[in-house]
Specification:
By secondary structure, this protein is an alpha+beta fold. It is about 35% helix and about 15% strand.
């Protein structure tokens, strides 16, 4: 049986690599003991802002066996999205993860292929795939699976490739070999804390979600608060500041996923282009992008807020 565990673990990791995932780590599906008090405290301090969904399914968030029946293993996967080219200077900025096609669709396709492979090669294995759309603490699982450590900006970090990647999971009812946790390499660095335009990183490793530019420009559906005027650093969808200044991201390498390549018009758009954007252009440029989440009216609201 142990031989099988080792064999199955190897073929799953090899196939994940073949599918284009940056790395694959595996941990035992069990209650996340250290995360429980941390999440409870974060929610009690209302750091989720209007993101009420963060309060739902508290138990499932911390225990995958409550989410997926008979689950034994959490397979964590990273997919690089670091772009080869960035937007022109002095323009309104979009987070790099939204340059190309919506990552949910891209990753779901790969997870489906990996699940199919596991069932073909190993047999009747059941489970569920997750991409940032269910009560799964993906960064905690990736760290537990040895894929990196959670940095002071609360993103997963690796010494080899920094933090510009998506995290996804397969939670399955198969026993596998588990990886061990890696060490923290943030040291005394406070680059992300010092650079955050809205001081959202309230202490090392704790981000007040309700102060984050990503929260305001994507999650918040109400009017943007006047108290935030002049603090958005020209970001109109998401924010990459804490990642851009992180020394470990010097090691980021461009992705090789064609579906993440930006729409040709996006990178060259000037402030004037953004200010004059029509719904037709919005639909054309962001037809398959995660930017659609804000809708045209939301993007306009964000641009107007910076323009005034």
């Amino acid at each position: 049986m142990i031989e099988n565990k080792s064999k199955y673990t190897k073929i799953i990791k090899d196939e994940a690599k073949r599918l284009g995932f940056l790395s694959c780590g595996i941990s035992k599906a069990e209650f996340l003991e250290t995360e429980a008090p941390r999440l409870e405290k974060w929610l009690n301090q209302n750091m989720n802002g209007n993101m009420q969904y963060m309060e739902n399914h508290f138990d499932k968030r911390l225990d995958p066996t409550k989410l997926v029946e008979d689950s034994k293993s959490v397979i964590s996967l990273l997919l690089n999205y670091y772009p080869k080219d960035s937007q022109v200077d002095n323009t309104y900025k979009v987070s790099k993860y939204a340059y190309g096609n919506d990552y949910h669709h891209v990753i779901k396709g790969k997870l489906k292929a990996l699940t199919h492979f596991i069932q073909e090669e190993i047999g009747a294995v059941s489970g569920r795939a997750f991409v940032d759309s269910a009560p799964v603490l993906d960064k905690a699982w990736a760290a537990k699976s040895g894929l990196g450590w959670i940095g002071k900006h609360s993103n997963l970090l690796t010494q080899q490739v920094g933090s510009f990647y998506f995290i996804a999971e397969l939670i399955i009812d198969l026993d596998l070999e588990y990886d061990s946790i890696t060490t923290d390499h943030c040291g005394t660095c406070t680059a992300c804390i010092d650079a955050c335009p809205t001081q959202a990183i309230v202490e090392p490793y704790v981000v007040d979600g309700s102060k984050c530019i990503s929260y305001f420009t994507i999650e918040l559906k109400d009017q943007l608060p006047n108290t935030m005027k002049g603090q958005f650093d020209d970001w109109i969808f998401g924010c990459d500041v804490c990642q851009d200044v992180c020394p470990w991201n010097k090691f980021s390498k461009p992705h090789n996923e064609p579906l993440f390549n930006p729409h040709p018009e996006l990178l060259d758009m000037t402030k004037k282009d953004w200010e004059e954007i029509t719904e037709d252009v919005f639909k054309k440029v962001f037809q398959k992008s995660a930017v659609k989440r804000t809708k045209f009216s939301g993007l306009q609201r964000n641009i107007d807020f910076l323009k005034e």
